[in-house]
# Entry
Amino acid sequence: MSELEYRPNVGIMVVNADGKVWIGKRIPRANHHDMISKAWQMPQGGVDEGEDLQAAALRELYEETGMKSVTLLGKSDDWISYDLPQELIGKVLKGKFKGQKQMWYCYRFEGIDAEINLHPTDEKPEFEAWKWENVDKLVELIVEFKRGVYIEVTKQFKQYTL
# Structure
């Protein structure tokens, strides 16, 4: 595992006017770890070669949620990484990575809920359901191996939910 790298990735926290955070319930693609019971997460996705990180965040946000009516509130201080559990290495992320390093962006959603579309493109959808959630509940809803990331992200962006 030590020779594997982290996959560059962006994560997106979207906050509505009520200070709630958008989360989606991932479509199960494999029966591993605690993905079925802890399937809720914020949007995230890979960065294309040479792609600007904020452009990647906006692209991923649209591809996964259909949202375009957003205003940038903040960006994480640095990359935040997580390691995959041993049993997933070689099976996910095309088998090339030991985990992901993520640059996080926080946006205010300026639209109406009807704008949200879980299948806005020809790509396979990531989520089967969504909801607005209290920021303090995010850590308990994410898979265990991403909890450290969510603790750090909520610490850095909680100010935007107040």
